[in-house]
Description:
Helix content is 81%, strand content 0%. The protein has helices at 2-26, 31-48, 55-85. The radius of gyration is 15 Å and the shape is elongated.
Amino acid sequence: MLQEIVGALLFFVLLFGIGFILNMLIKTTWLPVWLWVIVFIPLGVWHYWKPDTTLGSFLAVWMPSIVSSIAGAVVSGWAIRKLRKGGYKMF
């Protein structure tokens, strides 16, 4: 249980950082969210799915990490948007 909490927190921080950097470089606010949902979640499911795994057990293990990573990407887009509205030209 502790490992899932720490893993979810790490995924949140990782996606927040990657999303923030992508938003600064490419200047697209929601690109990290769409990339994560369209590309990386299906690739992760394809890579980690085992033939003897049920859907419930797979989601029980990976759902906290998936949800926290999407939350990190959304929060990075929200932070960039607030910084741009605040007048920061770098972002």
